[in-house]
Amino acid sequence: VQTAERTVRVAEVSIEEEQRVLVAEVRLRYGAAAAVIREVGVVDETVLAAQQQLRAVRARVEAGNAPPLEADLLEVEVRRLEAARLITVGRAEAAMAQLKPLLAMGPGEPLLLRDSLESLTAAIVIPRADAAVVGGRSDVQQAEARVALAAARVDQAQREGRADLSLFGTYMRMDNGFPQRGFGPSGGLERVRGRFDYVAIGAAITLPLLNRNQGQVAAARAERLAAEARREAVQRAAGAETAAADARNTRAQQAVQAYRDGVRELARRNLDVVRQTFDLGRATVFEVLAEQKRWLEVEQGYTEALREAWEARVALTRARGETK
Fold this sequence. Notes:
- By secondary structure, this protein is mostly helical.
- The chain has helices spanning 2-62, 68-102, 117-121, 131-135, 138-160, 214-279, 285-320, and strands at 164-183, 189-206.
- Strand 1 (164-183) and strand 2 (189-206) form a beta hairpin.
- Helix 1 (2-62) runs antiparallel to helix 2 and helix 1 runs antiparallel to helix 5 (138-160).
């Protein structure tokens, strides 16, 4: 009974471990989809601004206020950005398609993300994990349960190799007869028959002299040693994973904060100034394209920082064993 109960416990914590891994996978896929969707928004804004600028330059070329080369350069940039947008949209659709099976959704079902990547990373900062939190992880609990199960199997094997006493009791009634008739004690004819009652009680003692179930006991002990070694390995791995996830989360949050502390606003303001200067005829199209590329790189870097911050937070919650 003890072995069976501990087997059930192993199954229960195994389900909890599957849930922990699955929840982390859903969060990672959600973050990946949100990151690509943000990239689509940045590229859309860039394409729209480039198209507006191309129309303005074409008007200047037709009026003779700008050389045709400027319009050609901008047209090449617009087409390049439009191609890049198509690729980014395809990545977003692929990310959504990969997220749907984890949410038990079919490929044709509509799916809208409620939270943006910025709102995901703006959640409450997770505190550092301590030893008690690590010990409560489902994989650590699973290793503990397997050690307990192995100990129960050792005890069971030892009990099966000890002396055993079995008590038994039987009762049997037999009634036999023949079709012939004979004279009974009273002198009359009676059917020849006999009835017998048997009662037996006793005890059977098993004395293991040569076979004390040594093989099963040795195998169970080896299994217990292996389970203890696995438990120690899982505990060490859980501690290392938590420490690494904690460090990764801290640095990722710092990187996001570095982008938020004026870097993006400054890059945007520089781009607006260069565009206005170009509209006034005081800057070249090359300067506009260079500054636009620099702003796009800043926004892409910010998206990567946000995604890294979210993935680091997911790794930390997974290391802490949290599923909610």
